[in-house]
Amino acid sequence: MKFLTIPVFAGLLSLSAAAPQTTTNTAAPAPTTTASPFGQPNIFRPIVQSQYEVWTGAVHYNTTNGKIFKNGKTTDITTLLTFTVPAATAGLMCEVHFYLDPTANVSGTGTFDVFSSLAPATHSTTTWPSGNLRDAYGGRLQVSKPGEAVFLAGYGNEGQLFPCPASATYGAELVPTGDADDIEWVEALAGAYVLYHS
Length: 198
Prior knowledge:
This protein is mainly beta. It is built from one helix and 15 strands; from the N terminus they run αβββββββββββββββ.
């Protein structure tokens, strides 16, 4: 498998590792659809979804459920994603998307940040040093249940549109943003995907 290096992935998404800017525009636009997008021919989904425990460094590899969680009392949980980008996307533009079906659980702020990873998770661990290998910042999304999450203005949302890294494999991480967040979904029904088009 071909893995994107730090500068290549960061360059493709034009991501800024700087801290997100604050914004007064916290209201998300209305989602465009509540129907599942997964039947579309011009999308690809993660080939592996894993959960990461921030306090311990443990990775639960290839889980059937995704979780973005923070309550300040127990470990934060993020979701690690591994994407393999189809060769057919060469020369096209890609967009990060996130969809929740009606069975998903959402409480707290309902927002999360997207980061690239230095390398995707490859197996389960109980502690460091594997970790999440968080890298560049890609934006903040507000979820809607059911429906599509939307990028919030003022957070450097370069994940919205970028040249597709055709035939490459890369990792990403979905991270809680508020003092209390709980977003949970079943992978077969919901979660992240990438839309590609000219």
